[in-house]
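Our consortium's second objective concerns turning raw sequence data into structural hypotheses that experimental partners can test. To show how far this objective has progressed, the report includes one record in full. It was chosen at random from the queue rather than selected for favorable results. The single chain below, 493 residues long, was entered without modification.
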Amino acid sequence: MSIKPYQLTANKIKEEYKKGNLKASDVVQSLFQRIDNVENKVKAFAHLPEKNVGAGPCACPTQGDHRGSPLPLSGIPVAIKDNICVKGQLTTCASKILEGFRPPYNATVVEKLKKAGAILFGKTNMDEFAFGSSCENSCYHPTKNPWDINRIPGGSSGGSAASVGADEVIMALGSDTGGSIRQPASLCGVVGLKPTYGRVSRYGLIAFASSLDQIGPITKDVTDSAILMNVISGHDENDSTSVDLPVPDYTKSLIKDVKNLKIGVPKEYFIEGIDSDVKDSIEKALNVLSGLGAKYEMVSLPNTEYAVSVYYLVATAEASSNLARFDGVRFGRRATKTDNANEPSMIEMVSATRDEGFGPEAKRRIILGTFALSSGYYDAYYLKAQKVRTLIKQDFDEVFKKFDCIITPTSPTAAFKIGEKLNDPLSMYLSDIFTISANLAGIPAISIPCGFTRHGLPIGMQILAKPFDEETIFRVAYTYEQNTDWHLQKPVL
């Protein structure tokens, strides 16, 4: 085989297994060699996969013949974001406050991966507790963009996107609260899908903002995304927000046909400050789809301008509540030194633990959220934000009455340089301006590669559809992907 196993997609690996040309051990060994060669540059992992990845009670076997396996991910290595619980494996949300924490149970998505035959392959780096858009807020190290190691990979699922983009793993899971799958997927030149809220169980996902979080796939192409979505989707009685609806076979939506499909293009997404290369790439992508029979026209989502403000009120309020559990008493880090050297009180211990354990961005968001929920400010901020959130959802509902999907840029710019926005949180928050609305409305959205800047950096196109209509998203994304070659481009590391 001229191409190395680590370069293959999951669907191609499955084909090679069926032919008897590959074994899972070949794939795993190839990935370890790739990690040895490039991980010191990319730093995509918070916790590297163990060399005996195919052994132990929590692992899936790498040995044996996968040719006749009916399991959809038999012998396919999948990396897991560091905020998704894997029994017995370090799961720290890239935060000092959870150092040494090993969950006693698996997240539902992890159980589904194991039943599907997947090989659990390490924990990927992230912004602490998913707070960030650049993967610079990890307590371990910043992750680098495989296309330019002087630039950020996006966040918070930057480790998952970078590991797939750098061919260090075949596919990965991320979580998306305001664009944390799609934005890094765009900046790293891979495919990232945020499912409809409730389509994938959140049980075992360490919560950031419970009404916004969703687990989703990050993959090398659209076919792999559909395969992984088939595995992780479905109702879960352990998650009260999980929706009890039948799960279609998403691979049946992988058809090259967009004739008479109606696409809405919101004018609010082509704002002042958008990179000209990004704008040109989206326009060219729309022309490709138009040439294949789709029809597009400009539409309006008038409340888009409030999305960032609404998001950073709702998300921080929910985060401050969710992170109250990290107190040094039940699990994770406990401060050993306080201002009271004799016998510190419980309050002093908790205060010292949270001061030591949380990084600057986590503290900033806890303070913002606590303020928004405090007496006298709840109605003025949090409640008002929830009302505007409803208006944002209604904007999408109106557009989807006439259009099958919406297409926008995923990010207003390509990847920026490491450190460029680290001391400017407001500028950093605006990195998610095009992705936040999908989480507020609870609708599905995917980012797929659609071009490169003049500096050789990937650009992503975002496709959104009405709730639980991932099938339309896959159909449009697959049609575009099969008529272009952006997804085949690889970084030189």
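The partners drew two points from this record. The two ends are 21 Å apart (CA to CA). Residues 1-493 form a domain with the Amidase signature (AS) enzymes fold (CATH 3.90.1300.10). Both points have been shared with the crystallography group to help prioritize constructs.
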